[in-house]
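Re: [help] complex structure
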Amino acid sequence: MAQLMVMGLVVAVAVAVCLYAAVAAFKQPVSRPRLEKFAARQRLRVTADNGPLVLHALGITQRWRTLGLWTGIACGVLWSLREGRLTLDFAAAFIGWFAGAVVAEWRIAGIPRGEGRRAASLAPRTLSSYLRRGPLVTLAVALAIWLGATIAAALRTGGLAPWAWAAVTLSGLALLVLTLRRVVDRPQPPAGDDLVAADDALRARAAAVLTGSAIAALGLPTAAVFEVAGRSEAVYGNASWAAIGLLLMLLELGVGWRLATDASPARTGRARPAPAATQS
Amino acid sequence: MIIDIDPDGAVPAYEQLRTQVTELVASGTLAAGTRLPSIRQLASDLGLAPGTVARAFRELEADGLVTSRVRHGTVVTGPAGGVQAADQAAAERMLHDAARTFALAARRLGMSDDGAVRAVRAQLETLPHQG
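Output below.
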């Protein structure tokens, strides 16, 4: 009974900490170091013209990604209680981060359009203008590994679990594709060079974070289907499959994090060459 | 290259879009092989329904000015032979009509010739050069 009460108390504290961190993130303004880090990563010169746009967008992404991260951690803690343990699930945290990044991109409106006549540039925008090939190739490799493991698990076990994971993963992939399309297609009316360069920088950062967090989030279904595939293993045993799945998950978490936080300047030729500089 | 649409104008938005792209192709500002933005992008930037932009693109394709292919998007094919001359003549006619409308407005308002020319020059300076 006492053990149950202690467990309940610990869970309540853990969930309260997550909730507090999430709420605090919503109130916190964008700090100057964060703005400078963004400018350096995207090789953008922040000026009086584009500053408000950058600060507004960074505020939205900071709030939603942090909320997603802490919600993922809280869900991971609660999920671990099913097995009578209290563990910190990094994969769940990254899935929450990905979900938060997706919500943030749907809430960013881009450069405001004025009243009256409307103008547009005839220069096409594509995903390759905002995302390098490396993250896309990495995502394709991670998906290929997951797909192979899913097919192996389905053939070996014949159960529904691999298909359930496939449905969840493909839903996440569809969400990623739709959100990347939204990032590329959201309105960019012709404006000053500084404003358009900042808008491009925000799009490039969004594409990098979405792809990186998606690779990290893919770690969980990959590990899960490897574990399922190992259930019918008579020769090497379940542990080998589960260990490979766990290693792959850790690798995907690390690579995804690295890609999401690495420099990712837009390739539209409009970035202003002033790394790590802000103009007051 | 910038295109400009008046959503409250008497001319339908798809027709404004079609006319401006036609003029850009006829003048050579949009060269053959130039890729146009996707329907989604243009509709989003101009705040129009995708169907409106799609209609303009369909008409441009019917005129032989652009070609649309899956995965390649919409590409300018360029004016073929007499089409360019015809479009240039049409563009010049439209320009003269617009100039006459402006000249009449200047007279009605009692503006001097110099004042009217200065007003045109000031407006031209606010717009980016095409090409």
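Chain A touches chain B through 19 residues (CB under 8 Å).
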